[in-house]
Amino acid sequence: MRRSLRLFPVLAFFSWVGCSDGSANDSPGNAAGSPTDAAASSGSTTGGLTGASGTTSGNDSTSSTSGSTATTGFGNTSEANTGASNTSGANTGGGNTSGPANATGAGATNGSGGSGGSGTTTDSGGTTGSGGTSGDGGDCQFEPGLNPNRVCIKGKKYYLNGINVAWDQWTYDLTNYDSDNFQAMFSSLAAAGGNPVRWWWFIDGENQLTFSGNRVGPLAQSIFDNLDAAFDAAAAHGILIMPVLLSFDIEGPGREFLVTDDDAIDAFVTNVVTPLVERYNDHPGLGLWEIMNEGDWLLSDEGGSVSIADYQRFHGKVAAGIHAADADALVTTGSASFKYLEPSNNILSDDALQAAADGDPLAYLDVYQIHYYGWMHGDGWSYEPWIRTSTEWQDDGKPILIGEFPCIGEQGRWTTMQMHVESVNQGYAGTFCWAYFDNRADSEGTWDDARSAVQAIAEQIPEAITGE
Predict the structure, then answer these.
(1) pLDDT, average across residues 67-82
(2) What contacts 306, CB < 8 A, 6 or more positions away?
(3) pLDDT digits (tens, 9 = 90+) for 393-435
(4) CATH topology for 120-466?
(5) Cα 11 from Cα 28, distance rounded (Å)
(6) CA–CA separation, 241 vs 324, rounded Å?
(7) Is residue 95 classed as helix, strand or coil in its secondary structure?
(8) Closest by CA position to 81, among listed 454, 431, 382, 408
């Protein structure tokens, strides 16, 4: 999670604008402020869910949002609007609505991936999509049309109704694993009907990785022992772990070479990624693999030092390494927003990654992922995922996860219930709000803020929580 001063392009039909920041850093002790957009604190809302089908007008300090219709989705769920806005109309916090919008996805596929993004035609005329190389995918085929609103994992269709861990002890989770904390988290999430956690592992490379120059060495056996315990505990509660291998935080200690140096990438894949995938991909506690958290912030266009070409090559090579280690593995990466995923500017498309990885056909993502915080909307533009369907944002047939958003909701715009409900209504494949543990100063909420919304989703689509 990062909300720093960046120039974000307005959507295609607007012009470029600048965004103000909400926090400086993810690491413990660095406080992250509340959403800074003045419109978010003073706007008024009428009609349906805030901004779901309305139009925005006015300047930053007086903007108001009006919804034209009631939002459909879930019945008998309600939550008071905790923001500063005055809410009226059909829905407050997702209440008095009906029937989840069960969008079906594009690209009928075989296998556990279900994205269909880089499919190859077989002799029999069938198409095997990216991530769809195994024979157990008969239950995971999607009708052509919209992006899938589920993720196919080990032959089952899941809606990922989860939360970020994101860390318990920053860069010590794998070397100083606290089984009591994780057992309690898995148990509490499962009791509310949640099914995955998004868990950061190596973050900036400190403590849990060993280096010889720019080369990463093999992992310590103690890390595997701790992960064995974590995966077994997760599986016992029906929880899926989505490991996040690295974060943009590598820029802090100057380890951008993990993204820009081919030999360093190869060593990371050989000594870290491949052994992990081979050991855990078939474990019932494993969901999918995330390459990097918000690597966008490393890009030179965002004030970092990494070129788009290097960023694409890194993602292509790591994705290919994961798929080579296990053909059924599912791969995603945590994009900070839709900025670099829009159809006109998708730097992570199959074609882009495969070209960057010297034509390797295994260089692709199975699932897209974006994040959202309150600073991602401005005067006449927005990267709020819920103002469009997933297919309207990106239509190449891959499931899209909302990997981060405030568990506390966004004051004056969205309650946490609305964020969770609209994620289902707009065809996304899962959510992970920020964050479970109360061990940070970013003021974005904790599990206590998210529990009722997670439970409401589980009660309305129970079959998608268990993958049945």
Answers:
(1) 38
(2) 256, 259, 260, 295, 298, 299, 300
(3) 999 999 999 999 999 999 999 999 999 999 999 999 999 999 9
(4) TIM Barrel (3.20.20)
(5) 33
(6) 20
(7) coil
(8) 408
Give the per-residue SS3 of 344-379.
HHCCCCHHHHHHHCCCCCCCCCCCEEEECCHHHEEC
Residue-wise pLDDT for 343-399, tens only, equals 999 999 999 999 999 999 999 999 999 999 999 988 888 999 999 999 999 999 999
Among 130-144, 223-237, 329-343, the minimum mean pLDDT is found in: 130-144
Contact 457, 421 (CB under 8 A): yes
Which residues is 64 bridged to in the sheet?
Answer: 57
Per-residue DSSP letters for 282-337?
TSTTB--EEEEESGGGGBGGGTSSB-HHHHHHHHHHHHHHHHHH-TT--EEEE-SS
| Non-local CB neighbours of 425 within 8 Å, separated by 6+ positions | 52, 71, 72, 73, 100, 101, 386
Tell me if 426 sits within 8 A of 389, measured CB to CB: yes
Gap between the Cα atoms of 201 and 209, Å rounded: 10
Percentage of the chain modeled with pLDDT above 70: 70
Closest CA to 20 of 1, 30, 33, 11: 33
Identify whether the C-beta of residue 319 lies closer than 8 Å to the C-beta of residue 363: yes
CA torsion sign for 166, 170, 174, 177 is negative
90-122 residue pLDDT tens: 333 333 333 333 333 333 333 333 333 343 333
Beta-sheet pairing, 368-371 with 400-404: parallel
DSSP, residue by residue, 112-162 = S----TT-EE-TTS-EEPTT--SS-GGGG---SSBPPSSEEETTEEE-EEE
Residue 72 DSSP symbol: P
Strand, coil or helix: 78 = coil
Beta bridge pairs of residue 196: 240
Residue ranges covered by each domain of the chain: 120-466
